[in-house]
Give the backbone structure.
Amino acid sequence: MSFEKEKKIFDDIYNGINGYNLSHNGRSAMAPEDTKFLIYGEASFAELLTIIEDSGIKNELNGLTTFCDLGSGTGMCLIGTALICPYFNRIIGVEIVPTLCESSQKSIQQLAKVNEKLAAKIQIINGNFLKLNFAEISLSPDVLFMHYPMHGGGVEDLYLQLEEKFRSELKSGTIIISAIRKLSDLKTFPEVLPSKQIQCKYGNVTIFFHKKL
Ligand SMILES: C[S@@+](CC[C@H](N)C(=O)[O-])C[C@H]1O[C@@H](n2cnc3c(N)ncnc32)[C@H](O)[C@@H]1O
């Protein structure tokens, strides 16, 4: 499938939106200690297509209905996923930076003008994903996406905290798609596919595909 029509919808929605500036402005209004891991960068439509369509993960998504992006930026991954994966009926983004959430809401409204049904599936939570309970039925994802392009400075702790939450709160069978870093507890979160390299705006990124046992 070419997804040309979907790419045009995506490009029209995101034309002129500068997530780097929005993130910068939003973060400068937050307390410095709260902005440590808020590096911005988003996967493009083409990158999402590679992750979902070319990696083989699509075979694992059969029957799954709830997708969640942990740190959803301006919502590119949410809108892209809604366009590429019509089988998801709930698409949830969690984003802590208010300016990025506001921009996402506007983009969802733009999507609603061309496809109200797809737009109605998407929900944004403005908050810290470390403070959410993924076991709650209103969130409880089947597929989680995570992408944090930073190194050092304690980022290992962020991943360990997330893995701890995933161990206790995610249901068995949840697919976790992790950009850049492989999860460390491979007994609980074995890889279901070989990792895939994609070319992002900021360089080569490896995508890891895990499934919670
Ligand atoms: C690199 S961007 C990824 C955007 C999008 N998921 C993608 O891959 O295209 C990471 C996002 O996570 C957000 N973020 C980081 N830590 C967060 C937290 N604890 N709670 C909510 N959002 C967070 C950042 O503000 C940033 O917008």
Summary: The CA atoms of residues 22 and 191 lie 34 Å apart.
